[in-house]
Write a structure and sequence with these properties.
Number of helices: 11
CATH class: Alpha Beta
Number of strands: 8
Number of domains: 1
CATH topology: Rossmann fold
Structural class: alpha/beta
Order of helices and strands: EHEHHHEEHEHEHEHEHHH
CATH superfamily: P-loop containing nucleotide triphosphate hydrolases
Bound molecules: adenosine-5'-triphosphate, magnesium ion
Strand order of the largest sheet: 3-4-2-5-1-6-7-8
Shape: globular
Strand content: 15-25%
Largest sheet: 8 strands, mixed
Distance between the termini: 17 Å
Protein backbone atom coordinates (compact mmCIF):
# COMPACT_ATOMS: atom_id res chain seq x y z
CA UNK A 1 0.00 0.00 0.00
CA UNK A 2 1.42 3.40 -0.93
CA UNK A 3 1.78 6.06 1.73
CA UNK A 4 -0.26 9.25 1.48
CA UNK A 5 1.22 12.56 0.47
CA UNK A 6 1.33 14.99 3.39
CA UNK A 7 0.29 18.47 2.28
CA UNK A 8 0.86 20.97 5.10
CA UNK A 9 -0.72 24.40 5.24
CA UNK A 10 1.33 26.93 7.20
CA UNK A 11 1.54 30.70 7.34
CA UNK A 12 3.54 32.22 10.14
CA UNK A 13 0.99 34.97 10.70
CA UNK A 14 -2.35 33.84 12.06
CA UNK A 15 -5.78 34.48 10.62
CA UNK A 16 -4.78 34.50 6.94
CA UNK A 17 -7.07 31.62 5.95
CA UNK A 18 -5.20 28.35 6.62
CA UNK A 19 -8.18 26.47 8.00
CA UNK A 20 -10.51 27.78 5.31
CA UNK A 21 -8.04 26.70 2.62
CA UNK A 22 -7.45 23.32 4.28
CA UNK A 23 -11.17 22.54 4.27
CA UNK A 24 -11.63 23.74 0.69
CA UNK A 25 -8.59 21.89 -0.56
CA UNK A 26 -9.63 18.63 1.13
CA UNK A 27 -13.01 18.88 -0.55
CA UNK A 28 -11.56 19.84 -3.94
CA UNK A 29 -8.98 17.02 -3.86
CA UNK A 30 -11.72 14.55 -2.91
CA UNK A 31 -13.65 15.69 -5.98
CA UNK A 32 -10.68 14.77 -8.17
CA UNK A 33 -11.14 11.21 -6.92
CA UNK A 34 -8.44 11.18 -4.25
CA UNK A 35 -9.01 9.60 -0.86
CA UNK A 36 -8.41 12.56 1.46
CA UNK A 37 -7.86 12.94 5.19
CA UNK A 38 -8.10 16.46 6.60
CA UNK A 39 -6.11 16.58 9.85
CA UNK A 40 -6.11 19.37 12.40
CA UNK A 41 -2.54 20.07 13.45
CA UNK A 42 -3.37 23.39 15.11
CA UNK A 43 -3.66 21.88 18.56
CA UNK A 44 -3.72 25.09 20.55
CA UNK A 45 -6.62 26.56 18.60
CA UNK A 46 -7.93 23.61 16.65
CA UNK A 47 -10.98 24.71 14.72
CA UNK A 48 -11.62 22.53 11.70
CA UNK A 49 -14.41 20.97 13.76
CA UNK A 50 -15.90 24.43 14.29
CA UNK A 51 -15.67 25.44 10.62
CA UNK A 52 -17.45 22.21 9.68
CA UNK A 53 -19.85 22.11 12.64
CA UNK A 54 -18.72 18.63 13.70
CA UNK A 55 -19.64 16.84 16.90
CA UNK A 56 -16.28 15.39 17.93
CA UNK A 57 -16.16 12.11 19.83
CA UNK A 58 -12.51 11.19 19.55
CA UNK A 59 -9.70 13.57 18.78
CA UNK A 60 -6.04 13.45 17.92
CA UNK A 61 -5.06 13.23 21.61
CA UNK A 62 -7.02 10.00 21.95
CA UNK A 63 -5.24 8.61 18.89
CA UNK A 64 -1.81 9.62 20.17
CA UNK A 65 -2.60 8.15 23.58
CA UNK A 66 -3.42 4.88 21.85
CA UNK A 67 -7.01 4.89 23.13
CA UNK A 68 -8.55 4.80 19.65
CA UNK A 69 -7.27 4.17 16.15
CA UNK A 70 -7.16 6.76 13.40
CA UNK A 71 -10.04 4.93 11.71
CA UNK A 72 -12.16 5.22 14.88
CA UNK A 73 -11.37 8.91 15.36
CA UNK A 74 -11.73 10.04 11.74
CA UNK A 75 -15.14 11.44 10.85
CA UNK A 76 -16.40 10.70 7.36
CA UNK A 77 -17.90 13.75 5.65
CA UNK A 78 -20.70 13.58 3.14
CA UNK A 79 -18.45 15.65 0.83
CA UNK A 80 -16.18 12.65 0.40
CA UNK A 81 -13.28 13.29 2.76
CA UNK A 82 -12.44 12.26 6.33
CA UNK A 83 -11.56 14.58 9.22
CA UNK A 84 -9.20 13.93 12.12
CA UNK A 85 -10.21 16.59 14.67
CA UNK A 86 -7.57 18.27 16.78
CA UNK A 87 -9.55 18.40 19.96
CA UNK A 88 -12.73 17.35 21.63
CA UNK A 89 -12.81 20.15 24.16
CA UNK A 90 -11.17 18.03 26.82
CA UNK A 91 -7.78 19.75 26.57
CA UNK A 92 -4.85 17.42 27.01
CA UNK A 93 -2.21 19.29 25.03
CA UNK A 94 -0.08 19.75 28.14
CA UNK A 95 -0.12 16.02 28.78
CA UNK A 96 1.65 15.22 25.52
CA UNK A 97 5.16 13.83 25.78
CA UNK A 98 8.00 15.19 23.61
CA UNK A 99 7.73 12.33 21.14
CA UNK A 100 4.20 13.14 20.08
CA UNK A 101 5.05 15.08 16.91
CA UNK A 102 6.94 12.15 15.46
CA UNK A 103 4.11 9.81 16.42
CA UNK A 104 1.55 12.17 14.91
CA UNK A 105 3.41 12.28 11.59
CA UNK A 106 3.80 8.49 11.68
CA UNK A 107 0.04 8.05 12.25
CA UNK A 108 -0.68 10.32 9.28
CA UNK A 109 1.80 8.41 7.09
CA UNK A 110 -0.10 5.19 7.84
CA UNK A 111 -3.50 6.68 6.93
CA UNK A 112 -5.39 4.71 4.29
CA UNK A 113 -5.68 7.80 2.09
CA UNK A 114 -3.96 9.26 -0.99
CA UNK A 115 -3.62 12.75 0.42
CA UNK A 116 -3.44 14.12 3.96
CA UNK A 117 -4.16 17.84 4.23
CA UNK A 118 -2.66 19.07 7.49
CA UNK A 119 -3.76 22.41 8.96
CA UNK A 120 -0.66 23.64 10.80
CA UNK A 121 -1.04 26.29 13.49
CA UNK A 122 0.30 29.81 13.08
CA UNK A 123 3.66 30.95 14.42
CA UNK A 124 7.26 29.80 14.26
CA UNK A 125 7.32 27.73 17.44
CA UNK A 126 8.81 24.22 17.49
CA UNK A 127 5.47 22.48 16.92
CA UNK A 128 4.42 24.19 13.66
CA UNK A 129 8.04 24.24 12.60
CA UNK A 130 8.50 20.48 13.00
CA UNK A 131 5.14 19.67 11.45
CA UNK A 132 6.04 21.87 8.47
CA UNK A 133 9.39 20.13 8.01
CA UNK A 134 7.66 16.72 8.17
CA UNK A 135 5.37 17.37 5.20
CA UNK A 136 5.99 16.31 1.59
CA UNK A 137 4.55 19.53 0.22
CA UNK A 138 4.18 22.70 2.25
CA UNK A 139 1.76 25.38 1.15
CA UNK A 140 2.80 28.63 2.80
CA UNK A 141 -0.10 31.03 2.91
CA UNK A 142 0.54 34.74 2.56
CA UNK A 143 -1.46 37.88 1.88
CA UNK A 144 -0.14 41.16 0.56
CA UNK A 145 0.09 42.61 4.09
CA UNK A 146 3.70 43.29 5.08
CA UNK A 147 3.34 41.36 8.36
CA UNK A 148 2.01 38.31 6.55
CA UNK A 149 4.81 38.49 3.96
CA UNK A 150 7.48 38.79 6.64
CA UNK A 151 6.08 35.84 8.56
CA UNK A 152 5.70 33.70 5.44
CA UNK A 153 9.33 34.46 4.58
CA UNK A 154 10.35 33.40 8.11
CA UNK A 155 8.54 30.06 7.65
CA UNK A 156 10.38 29.50 4.35
CA UNK A 157 13.70 30.44 5.93
CA UNK A 158 13.28 27.95 8.77
CA UNK A 159 12.16 25.30 6.30
CA UNK A 160 15.34 25.82 4.29
CA UNK A 161 17.27 24.96 7.48
CA UNK A 162 15.05 22.14 8.71
CA UNK A 163 14.27 20.43 5.40
CA UNK A 164 16.55 21.66 2.60
CA UNK A 165 15.08 20.81 -0.78
CA UNK A 166 11.52 20.62 0.60
CA UNK A 167 8.68 21.18 -1.87
CA UNK A 168 7.38 24.54 -0.64
CA UNK A 169 4.84 26.60 -2.58
CA UNK A 170 3.38 29.97 -1.81
CA UNK A 171 -0.38 30.39 -1.87
CA UNK A 172 -1.54 33.98 -1.89
CA UNK A 173 -4.89 34.31 -0.16
CA UNK A 174 -7.29 37.24 0.06
CA UNK A 175 -6.00 38.50 -3.29
CA UNK A 176 -7.87 41.17 -5.23
CA UNK A 177 -7.07 39.36 -8.47
CA UNK A 178 -4.56 37.01 -10.07
CA UNK A 179 -2.20 39.89 -10.94
CA UNK A 180 -1.97 41.11 -7.37
CA UNK A 181 -1.43 37.54 -6.22
CA UNK A 182 1.40 37.13 -8.71
CA UNK A 183 3.05 40.33 -7.49
CA UNK A 184 2.81 39.20 -3.87
CA UNK A 185 4.41 35.88 -4.80
CA UNK A 186 7.12 37.69 -6.80
CA UNK A 187 8.04 39.76 -3.73
CA UNK A 188 8.46 36.62 -1.62
CA UNK A 189 10.33 34.82 -4.39
CA UNK A 190 12.75 37.75 -4.70
CA UNK A 191 13.43 37.72 -0.95
CA UNK A 192 14.03 33.96 -1.00
CA UNK A 193 16.37 34.17 -4.00
CA UNK A 194 18.28 37.08 -2.45
CA UNK A 195 18.67 35.76 1.08
CA UNK A 196 18.15 32.00 0.92
CA UNK A 197 19.76 31.31 -2.45
CA UNK A 198 16.65 29.59 -3.78
CA UNK A 199 13.31 30.85 -5.05
CA UNK A 200 9.89 29.59 -4.07
CA UNK A 201 7.20 28.33 -6.45
CA UNK A 202 3.71 29.78 -6.69
CA UNK A 203 1.13 27.20 -5.65
CA UNK A 204 -1.87 29.34 -6.44
CA UNK A 205 -3.81 32.50 -5.79
CA UNK A 206 -7.14 32.55 -3.94
CA UNK A 207 -9.21 35.67 -4.32
CA UNK A 208 -10.90 37.48 -1.47
CA UNK A 209 -14.47 36.32 -1.63
CA UNK A 210 -17.35 37.15 0.73
CA UNK A 211 -18.81 33.70 0.01
CA UNK A 212 -15.94 32.19 2.01
CA UNK A 213 -17.05 33.99 5.14
CA UNK A 214 -20.63 33.00 4.47
CA UNK A 215 -19.69 29.32 4.13
CA UNK A 216 -17.74 29.39 7.41
CA UNK A 217 -20.55 31.20 9.18
CA UNK A 218 -22.95 28.48 8.10
CA UNK A 219 -20.43 25.71 8.88
CA UNK A 220 -20.77 24.27 5.38
CA UNK A 221 -17.77 23.56 3.10
CA UNK A 222 -17.31 26.28 0.48
CA UNK A 223 -17.61 24.05 -2.57
CA UNK A 224 -20.95 22.76 -1.29
CA UNK A 225 -22.43 26.09 -0.28
CA UNK A 226 -20.98 28.25 -3.04
CA UNK A 227 -19.86 26.12 -5.96
CA UNK A 228 -18.52 28.27 -8.75
CA UNK A 229 -17.67 31.19 -6.45
CA UNK A 230 -14.33 32.91 -7.08
CA UNK A 231 -12.63 31.32 -4.06
CA UNK A 232 -14.07 27.89 -4.93
CA UNK A 233 -12.75 28.15 -8.49
CA UNK A 234 -9.31 29.18 -7.25
CA UNK A 235 -9.13 26.36 -4.71
CA UNK A 236 -10.24 23.83 -7.32
CA UNK A 237 -7.49 25.07 -9.65
CA UNK A 238 -4.95 24.69 -6.83
CA UNK A 239 -6.20 21.17 -6.12
CA UNK A 240 -5.99 20.24 -9.81
CA UNK A 241 -2.35 21.39 -9.94
CA UNK A 242 -1.54 19.40 -6.79
CA UNK A 243 -3.25 16.30 -8.17
CA UNK A 244 -1.34 16.69 -11.44
CA UNK A 245 2.02 17.10 -9.68
CA UNK A 246 1.35 13.93 -7.68
CA UNK A 247 0.42 12.03 -10.83
CA UNK A 248 3.63 13.22 -12.52
CA UNK A 249 5.85 12.30 -9.56
N1 LIG B 1 -10.39 33.88 0.30
C1 LIG B 1 -11.04 34.46 1.34
N2 LIG B 1 -11.93 35.46 1.12
C2 LIG B 1 -12.57 36.06 2.14
N3 LIG B 1 -12.40 35.72 3.44
C3 LIG B 1 -11.53 34.74 3.72
C4 LIG B 1 -10.80 34.05 2.71
N4 LIG B 1 -9.99 33.14 3.30
C5 LIG B 1 -10.22 33.25 4.63
N5 LIG B 1 -11.13 34.21 4.88
C6 LIG B 1 -11.63 34.64 6.19
O1 LIG B 1 -10.51 34.88 7.04
C7 LIG B 1 -10.82 34.52 8.37
C8 LIG B 1 -9.71 33.65 8.93
O2 LIG B 1 -9.73 32.40 8.27
P1 LIG B 1 -9.14 31.10 8.96
O3 LIG B 1 -9.74 30.87 10.29
O4 LIG B 1 -9.24 30.02 7.95
O5 LIG B 1 -7.61 31.56 9.14
P2 LIG B 1 -6.42 30.78 9.87
O6 LIG B 1 -5.17 31.15 9.17
O7 LIG B 1 -6.75 29.33 9.95
O8 LIG B 1 -6.45 31.41 11.32
P3 LIG B 1 -5.65 30.88 12.62
O9 LIG B 1 -4.21 31.28 12.43
O10 LIG B 1 -6.31 31.60 13.74
O11 LIG B 1 -5.82 29.39 12.67
C9 LIG B 1 -12.17 33.80 8.34
O12 LIG B 1 -13.13 34.68 8.85
C10 LIG B 1 -12.44 33.56 6.88
O13 LIG B 1 -13.79 33.69 6.56
MG1 LIG C 1 -6.89 28.05 11.60
Amino acid sequence: MSTPRLIGIASGKGGVGKTALAVGLAQALARTGRRVLLADGDLGLANIDVQLGLAVRHDLMAVLAGNVTLREAALAQSEGFDVLPGRSGSGGLAALDPGWIGRFLAVLRCAPHDEVVLDIGAGLDPVPRRLSAGCDTLLVLATDEPTSLTDAYAVLKLLTRDAPGADARVVVNLATDAGQGARTHAALDRACRGFLGRGVALGGVVRRDPQMRDAIRHQVPLLTRHPGSNAAQDIEALAARLAASRAAA
